[in-house]
Each structure stands twice: as structure tokens, then as C-alpha cells.
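For the sake of clarity, the format in which proteins appear in this thesis is described at this point. The record quoted next illustrates the convention:

___
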Amino acid sequence: MLYSFRNRLIAIFVLLFVLSFGTLAILLFNQSRSIVRSYIESSALEKMDEYGSYIDMLRTQIYDLASIVFNSDITHDWDTIVSDPNATSAEKYVAHYRLSQFLTQTTNSYSSVTSVTVYRREGMWVSSGNQIVSDQSFLEDDWYERFIHNEEYWVPSHQDAAEMRNHNSHPVVSMLMPIGSFHPAQTRSIMKVNVSADDFLTGFIWARAARSICWISMAGRCYRRRSTTRMTAC
């Protein structure tokens, strides 16, 4: 009788010990998982802020350069001369050359920008590096069609014709801007600012609560974090 009671007592003690240890292990596991998750999310947000600052700097350089070219008297004079049916070939060539020199100088002032090209609907383009090219092939390019018809100002990672002529086959991300008009469908000239796609790195992805939050895509479309669970387009 005493032996049976002692065995039961031992069994109860062992059972309570196992249950207590198991409960403690579960609590510690959940707590540690919560700590690790919080650390990962905190690190992700910190990296997003760092990456966001870098992208803001990159976009600022692109917009500053585009603004300089857009507001330049050299650009305006070039657009006026090449649009004038009475202008001679010599006058147009001088205007092309001056614009190319200006684009080269401006591009050299911004380390993140690889090249700037201005396209005309007549089927020619002027780029930095004394590139003055008569070529209508860009009129059929996807980026040109999307800009004219859909007003898409950012071009996803692609190979650029002007870059290829300079033996640069690396993909670029581009920003487009009309010259002489604020409406792509009405403009006669289009500015294309190229930045190496490598500068945008790989799109930063952060997942939380089964939702994927993108910071910036390789298409050049950027998104800003408004809160820990919400992102909006720039």
C-alpha cells in the first residue's frame, strides 16, 4: 500500500516536472522567437532607411541634372534651331555640337549619371561624348511608346543605344522628361537620363504579416515607407 502510494507520488511529481519544463520551454521559445522577429524587423527598417537615403540622393542627382538641362539656354536655343525649317544644316550642326558639349560637361558633374541623351521625333538624337546620330529606330522602342502614350517617366533596367555606342553594355535605369512641353504626347524633344542599374541594387523586400513591402524595384519605381506597415509610391 505504502509502496503503491509512493509510486503514485513519484509519478505525479515527474508529470508535474515534465509539464512545468514543457510549459517553460514553450514560453521561452515563443519569447525568443518574438525577440528575434523584433530584431529582424528593426534591422530591416534600419536598412530601409539607409537604402532610402541613398535612393533619395540618387534621385536628387537625376532631378537636378534634368532641371539644369531643361532650363538651359543652350537647350532652348538648340530646340528652336532644329525646329526652324529655315535653319541651315550648318546652323543645326553647330547647335547639335554645342548641346552635346553641354551634356558632356553636365554629366561629368554628377557621378551617378552615366549619360544624358536628347531625342527628336524627326528621328535623331544628341548625347554626351559628341554623339550626334540620325537614327529612327528609337521611335519603335518600348520605352518611347510608353512615354508618349502612357506618360511613363521611368524606364526599367535595359540596354541603351547611346550607351552601347560607347561600348557600355551594362543595363541602365532611365528617367525621361519632355523638352519644350510638359505633355509627352505634344513634345518634340525628349531628354533621357541614364543611371547604371547596379546603382539601384536589387529591390529591397521586407515582409511582415504576410505582406511584402517593396522599397524600390529594378524598374526604377520607388516606394516610400510611411509607417511600419504601409508604403506609398514616391
Notes: Residues 2-71 form the longest helix (70 residues). The mean pLDDT is 78. Residues 9 and 15 are 10 Å apart (CA to CA). The two ends are 80 Å apart (CA to CA).
